[in-house]
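Postdoc handover notes: sequence design on the structure in folder B. Input tokens:
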């Protein structure tokens, strides 16, 4: 277990961390993708819901 922790710490020293500007850019990209995905799911859910209501009214 101690060897694992030492190896993990050694590997973390090799990590290249993103700059503040890169982090802001990636955060904005993630937010935009989440909003687009939410809009897609909302439209799909609304259409499916309306379809089920229409089918229920048919019978």
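Designed sequence:
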């Amino acid at each position: 277990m101690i060897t694992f922790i030492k190896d993990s710490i050694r590997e973390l020293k090799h990590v290249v961390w993103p700059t503040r500007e890169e982090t802001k850019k990636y955060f904005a990209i993630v937010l935009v993708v989440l909003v687009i995905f939410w809009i897609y799911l909302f439209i799909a859910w609304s259409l499916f819901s309306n379809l089920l209501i229409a089918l229920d009214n048919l019978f």
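Context for whoever picks this up: The mean pLDDT is 95. Don't rerun without checking with the PI first.
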